[in-house]
Write a structure and sequence with these properties.
This protein is mostly helical and 278 residues long. It is built from 12 helices and no strands. It has one domain: MetI-like (MetI-like fold). Helices cover 76% and strands 0% of the residues.
Length: 278
């Protein structure tokens, strides 16, 4: 069916407005990274790249970047293990309370970050503190893993629900044990979902600030460094450069995760959900 000219024009205008609404602020902060002056004025009067070298030589930026990478990788690794195990249990087995377990696993990503942060802070300080647990990179990892697990779980579960369980049964009938079935049958089918989920989990962890504030103690990740430095006018140009870097770093894993997920998306449709549960 051919759309009328007016409809096509309105759809294109609507799409352009939506993209501008979403990305114009990011373009502005990206342009400010090339502002040659300390004071921000629009339009930009002087252009320069000197702040990139200043940001690279800043010890606080490099330490915070290292912390963000370490936390992101460890939290992602934990999420891959826990999210995969949970998705395998839900997709391949039937038991009482199965849907409740799904709801409980997904719930943390829907809760406000400040609630999760307060809960983790109270637990670490009051419950785990007497056992010698102190705030640091380890507690940040725990906080980030709570929502990274959900991303991995959703990706892997969606893939498993599109995979015939009869393949696992055929593997068992041919004499393969559980490990061999997982290694040679299940893992090849869900490895791209694992990679996509891991990339998304890392991107979420790298950008997280609210939960990090409550669990970091004296440690700083890159978003925490940006937030604490934002109110120092003399260092605002460095913050703009770091912000541009964070945007680029965030785009890369999300782009590849979207390409890996392809047309399958992140979650199953209602029809596929009903078929999987029947």
């Amino acid at each position: 069916m051919t759309e009328p000219l007016v409809t096509r024009v309105l759809l294109r205008l609507g799409s352009a407005f939506t993209l501008a609404f979403l990305y114009f602020p990011l373009v502005v902060i990206g342009l400010y990274a090339f502002n040659g002056q300390v004071v921000q004025r629009w339009p930009i009067q002087e252009w320069s790249t000197e702040w990139f070298s200043v940001a690279f030589e800043n010890e606080g930026v490099r330490t915070a970047l290292k912390n963000s990478i370490v936390v992101g990788l460890v939290a992602t690794a934990i999420a891959l293990v826990l999210g995969t195990l949970a998705s395998l249990a839900i997709a391949r087995y039937r038991f009482f309370g199965r849907e409740t377990v799904t709801f409980v696993i997904i719930l943390p990503i829907a809760l406000p970050g400040i609630i999760t942060g307060l809960a983790l802070q109270a637990t670490i300080k009051d419950v785990l503190g007497p056992w010698g647990v102190v705030f640091g990179l380890g507690t940040i990892v725990i906080g980030h893993a709570t929502f990274c697990v959900v991303v991995v779980y959703n990706n892997v579960l969606a893939r498993l629900r599109r995979t015939a369980g009869s393949l696992d049964e055929a593997s068992a009938d041919l004499g393969a044990d559980s490990w061999q079935t997982f290694r040679y049958v299940m893992f090849p089918q869900m490895r791209t979902a694992l990679l996509a989920g891991g990339l998304l989990a890392f991107a979420l962890s790298f950008d997280e600030i609210i939960v990090t504030i409550f669990t970091s103690g004296a440690q700083q990740t890159l978003p925490i460094w940006m937030y604490s430095t934002l109110f120092r006018p003399s260092e605002l140009p460095i913050v703009n450069v770091v912000a541009l870097f964070v945007v680029i770093v965030s785009i890369v894993p999300v782009y590849f995760a979207q390409r890996l997920a392809g047309a399958e998306g992140i979650a199953p449709t209602r029809t596929e959900q009903a078929a999987a549960d029947s």
